[in-house]
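ok so for the tutorial part 2 we go from a plain amino acid sequence to predicted structure tokens. step 1 is just haveing the sequence, like this:
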Amino acid sequence: MIKILAILSLCLASVVLGVKVGQQQSGPQVPQKHLVCYYDSASFVKEGLGKLVIDELEPALQFCDYLIYGYAGLERESHKAVSLNQQLDLDLGKGLYRTVTRLKRKYPNLKVLLSVGGDKDIETDKDAKELPNKYLELLESSTGRTRFVNTVFSLVKTYGFDGLDVAWQFPKNKPKKVHSGLGSFWKGFKKVFSGDSIVDEKSEEHKEQFTALLRDVKNAFRPDNLLLSTTVLPNVNSSLFYDIPAVINYLDFVNLAAFDFFTPQRNPEVADYSAPIYELSERNPEFNVEAQVKFWLRNSCPASKINVGVATYGRPWKLTEDSGDTGVPPLSHVEDEAPVGGNTLIHGIYSWPEVCALLPNQNNAYSKGANAPLTKVQDPAKRYGSYAYRAADKKGDNGIWVSYEDPDTAADKAGYVRTNNLGGVALFDLSFDDFRGLCTTEKYPILRAVKYRLSN
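step 2 — the prediction. this is what the tokens look like for a chain of 456 residues:
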């Protein structure tokens, strides 16, 4: 009898424990944070260490929820959506469009979107002057909008994409002059983001037309359950071109490219943090991630649809003999003449492995002059990001200052996303991460750091 009672007690305890476990499993779950990964196919045709081919792209895909393949563009006269490199993208049997979308067979949880625009579809005349903005011209033509919708739908369906990312090339804010003293005060989002310059006299019309374009694309996509996202490109004023309460109904998510607030091209005379999370004290209160995020939240965008853009690169300036020796930003008397990185071969950008090679390591520990390591300055408060510098020598040579993203700062931004219960992180771009493992032998360290912080 005692044995029977003991067995019954044990069974009852097991049932109760099972109920409790079941209750815990069915309780509120933290929504999964998305990791959106950009792949600019221009890196496929590079030479040297900056060339990112599909075999080297694949190790990243285990961490990505979405892969955004860039970039398609617009045909000026017809307003059709077209590949910007048809030989690369569309070649029968070997084109990257099909090659990339076929990766879903190996990574069934991955969604692959085609992106249009992305600041990659720039046309110039024989004198290298930029031609009129064809993205605005398309918006002004109802026939053009219809043709764009039809042709972009055809591209997405024909090549097996799961949807479209609209990285529309709106006019950029004019760079603001940096003043000494207490800096500028907040005078409304539109004023501070566009400064005193009018970047588009017909912005209200273009805003309405862009809303109509997104509506038409979504209506075309809906029967096939295709995704639609938008990328707000760096230094594009959301208040001018996005009717947020209206467009958010058509969008599955929004990628805020909240970086490049300061770049050597836009600010050739002043170096500063290129992508701080929070407001820089006494200057530029709008040039940070939080200001961008809060604007979209205030305008009825659900937090779950916002992906915070994180760059995988740095922005370098050349320091002169008048720039000083401390490296503390904002730095004046700088120049947009930093040496071009040997991997990316792009003026004004250092990929993470290029930055890493400049920081103190065993290869440059005893180097001098142009090969001497930079002094690294971290951000213990996790508000602004890291920078590194080498003061100019007595001849005014060999000076560099770079604001950059690394695995630690990128993880801090992923932590910001978790703390504020946002949708996720959009990583720009896989080709600028250390996809070869040149820095620490670990491939894609920034991507890994972001994924780990989003998941833990």
